[in-house]
Amino acid sequence: MCQHQPPCPTADSADREAALLVAHHPEQGWSLLCNGVLVFEDTGELLPDGQIIAPHRPLDVVRAA
Predict the structure, then answer these.
(1) pTM of the model
(2) What does the alpha-carbon distance between residue 23 and residue 57 come to, in Å, rounded to a whole number?
(3) Which InterPro entries match (predicted)?
(4) What is d(CA 12, CA 28) in angstroms, rounded to the nearest whole number?
């Protein structure tokens, strides 16, 4: 899918989230990357083959008072 040089990481790469944005819809809570991965605002992902990656937010976030 990716036509960039150097090419973006593939959907099955560990760094797949580093691919460039093709579409961004924050009002709907998702973005499409050029490798076909849908990234959701809760950090979950849907890969082009239908595989679901569960949300992976950091659990040790320090909150400001």
Answers:
(1) 0.80
(2) 22
(3) DUF5999 (IPR046041)
(4) 25
